[in-house]
Amino acid sequence: MTILNRDDIRFSYLHLTGAAWQEPVRDSLESRLAALAEHGVPAMGMSSEELEKFIAEHSADKLHGLMSEYGVRLYELEVLFGWNAGPEESGGAREAEARFLDLAEAAGVPTVKTCAVYPPGVDMPPVEVLAERFGALCDRAAARNFTVALEAMAVMPGFTYQVAADVVAAADRPNAGLVIDMWHLFRDPAGVAAIDGLKGSQIVGVEFGDAPLVPDEDVMHEVLSARLLPGEGECDITGLLRTLDAKGVDVAPSVEVLSTELRALTPSENIARTLTAVRRSLETARAA
Q: Whole-angstrom Cα distance, residue 156 to residue 175?
């Protein structure tokens, strides 16, 4: 089986909050779980901020009770930063990492999503140094039975998909791999080519999304509020899915579309429309 034959579609955290990035979550956790259960969706992502707040205000037992009641599990916790820090900066980062992993463990989340950010003007270490630091993170996570999912963000051009893929390949840890976020991959000029050298097992997540061929003049607006559902843009999603199929990538499809239009919908309306789009993309790729 590969991703083309999977129908256990998962929803990332940001897709379902009903709010813009860094704004308070509009739709409660229980309302999202109820909507996911209504449509037979088995899993959703969570942010460490919302998870920490929920456990502090309620309890981990309350969280597990809700997940059991609605039959929905948490599949990833986002986003862990700081693993790429040098020795002189790593003290605070390690403490934050430990708290993050404690949260994931308390909630029973199997995968931690992570990234490295190097804004323009900030020097990035060589790939071999990043790979060594990433490998060390993976080893610490493996000791607690976590998978580490590394993503790249096209709006931060330093840590590109090529860099992220090279880091994953060089670190070569069995509990780690690359997350393909379709919007970021297609907005990265060398994004699609960057995954050529990876084995199928080194790709641990595929987040569906789409975009016009020509980027918005305000790329930050596009990434935060104007992404498109698969099939509504002009990206070669079919070609990408066929490439992943040929590699034997066998992960559940997930989706992350940050959109003003989707945020205006109820969770149930958002989920229904999104599932239709993702399933249509998979059907098109299977028929290609």
A: 25
